[in-house]
């Protein structure tokens, strides 16, 4: 329904009023937050009015204000609300301003906190999908930033998994927040001695890591690099190739067994870290055929990394192992599958392939064993008799396992048949080899 002239005027006046509060340097942060929330609530009903009266103010607030890293502070919530408004704006309303918005988003990446950058990344993705801007220096700088994050990750590994006591202080002002941010990689709770309004608990705050150190942000970066490659492949082909050694280093990183067994080992941080590694492996799976020669020169690290991820992936987190198996399936579908032949014994180990969790064992068997079956089929002329024997035994056990889901049944059966054929071929090779002949 269209607004009357007076109605339209009153809406504009309302937006203008809230924008003036956000612009006012003397206004309290609480008042600014209320105004930002009011604008957010009315944005979808009046997007064009929002753009006319409020967009410039919000962009100025984000551009000129400083990032904050305590989630509960009003000033942080204002910045996050402003970014969420930008994310929700319809493409048509934002179209005349998308270049300035996109430019600001790229600038904020390096300085903002994790919470805000997760929104910024979604804005960057959507603006590129909607408007497909031309390649620019900002794209190059973004890829350089992502590379620098990957390069620094091994240096941060000891701090990421360093056993830590909960942070408890008398008052938040006692902390050197800037120093603490230098070794914070995931949202960290800080408990103070101040009593909460209920009187039964203490006031606590959540310290948000810098985006460039955030494990959650690291999980989201590969998909944007893929998008940049899709849009600008003729410009970024070499730059993306430079990611491959960094990917290999990333997927081989892991905390030592001693660290993992420590009573203060933070499993949530470990899950975030592995999530970032698996997303990185998925990135490799996407580009592997394009850069097959480059990847081949790092194949040893690739095999080591993938097997390591399978071995230590937490059994409680089924979705991570599923994503890992999907990435592995894509990698094993290339000619580099032969690089895994010396490690077949590990792949036939259910504790490595599926983990020890009940959920992963029950839900991921079809994916895991069909992937393994395809691998066995394609490398059957190269694997040892002992590995072929394991294949036959493993698939035979699963064919006769009544708990296997129905769609799973045909896969091992056909693969077992393949394995039997390969087993016979392997036996022939062995006999010919013993008599000094050659196998054709």
Automatic annotation (TrEMBL):
Residues 419-428 have a biased composition (Low complexity). InterPro entries: ARM-like (IPR011989), ARM-type_fold (IPR016024), DDR_Repair_Kinase (IPR050517), Tra1_central (IPR046807). Pfam families: Tra1_central. Residues 419-440 are annotated as: Disordered. One of its GO terms (biological process) is regulation of DNA-templated transcription. GO terms for cellular component: NuA4 histone acetyltransferase complex; nucleus; SAGA complex. This is Transformation/transcription domainassociated proteinlike.
